[in-house]
Input
Amino acid sequence: MTEPPKGGDGPSPMRFAGLGIQLVVMMLAGLFAGQWADRKFGTGSILTVVGAFVGFGATMWSLLRQVGQDGRDGPGLHRGDRGDK
Output
């Protein structure tokens, strides 16, 4: 039986605590940018929807980069730490 990881092993859950805020901020930024572009170019609401999707996509891209970085580091290894002591 394996024992549960101790405090210093692996990434901290607090690293991803701001993800919800990041999602909301990026979607709102895309939404408002899309509304501005719709008013400027007279395109109805097409660019508003596109802007919201771009904001959501940017958040997902950032999340995948963070998760991928954690997977490459491995448990107990952090940037700059090769594991040799």
